[in-house]
Amino acid sequence: MRNDRYQADVPPYALYALLGASLILNVVMVLKIEGGNDAPPPVAVLTDAPAQELVLATPSGSQATPVVDQAVPVTSNSAAVAELAPVADSQGWEVSHASVEHSLARTISNAVDSDADALAAVYSRLFMWDLDLRRDVQKGDQIWMIWQPVEGEEPVVAAAWYKSQKLGRTLQVYRYQAPEDLAPSYWHADGSEASLRLKGGPIEGYDQITSLLKDRPDHRGMDFRAPVGTDVVSPKAGTVTRVNWNHKANGNCIEVRFPDGTHAKFLHLDKLSVRAGEYVQAGQLLAASGNTGHSTAAHLHYELEKGGKTQDPVEYHSTQRRELPAGALEAFALVVNDMDSSLGTAVASR
Ligand SMILES: [Zn+2]
Fold this sequence. Notes:
By secondary structure, the protein is an alpha+beta fold. It has two domains: 15-196 and 322-344, Nuclear Transport Factor 2, Chain: A (Roll), CATH 3.10.450; 208-321, Glucose Permease (Domain IIA) (Distorted Sandwich), CATH 2.70.70.10. It contains seven helices and 18 strands. The chain has helices spanning 15-18, 23-32, 104-111, 116-126, 247-250, 313-317, 329-344, and strands at residues 55-57, 94-99, 142-150, 153-164, 169-176, 185-187, 197-198, 208-211, 221-225, 231-233, 238-243, 252-257, 263-272, 279-280, 285-289, 299-306, 309-311, 319-323. The strands form three sheets. Strands 8, 9, 10, 11, 12, 13, 14, 15, 16 and 17 form a ten-stranded antiparallel β-sheet that branches. Strand 12 and strand 13 (263-272) form a beta hairpin. The structure holds zinc ion.
């Protein structure tokens, strides 16, 4: 059984994601977070979730662009905070706008008083499927965001725009909780989800993909931030070739060989439900996700290898994009309007 839902809500640190790109950001993130090990940020909500009723649409051409990092500024003028009712049930929202000059990290650190590195990470992750901010950022691009610091966790971004000269358009995402979801995620104004999902992937109950294969040269898989105990299933039928090898680094782990010769590795698990030598069906429960081994936050690390070569799960599985159910579009449009009003009044700091 799959756990058709993602839950948590606070955007993670996808630190690894930031590597390679903005030197500054990288350095900051790595130092602050995990020193290069493999772990996504903390999860806010840890519940199991019921089935969802969102529509899954297959995007034309899989836009598997990796995440981000790089040059985008943020400003801070705090107009319009009061109008953020849909997202804010309290004070403290800030509206920031700036033009990109150097890296995203540097711009943000110049523009905000606190949380700059975490904010850069969160912001970058919002656009990871649409734009590779490591390569695609140009001087003069514009960023906007409505955000708020959260004690002990990553800042929350309620809405964000990125005006890309390369794309010739402005990307816009809005935080919104779909009716059947346990936590908010990010959506485009047309009701399509900002992030893509693997078709037939190993885990459904995650709240965010925090690292793609391409995000870090030394990272060979994809990371799904998920509460400990989330179902991890075998994407395909196959044979469990080994469990719990290299336990200090991998924690509780499972490897399954698919009929096409691909080896799938599932790391940092909690409780295992299968043993080495066992044959498993597609969709069969393998384990509960966890935070074991070299991991600093609850997540599943999913890695594919064939003939000694690492495979990109995004290409191996292909992707699909959810859409808000029709019944939610009206309420969502109100949120979008409010956010747009606030962001539209923001004045660039530089
Ligand atoms: Zn990983």
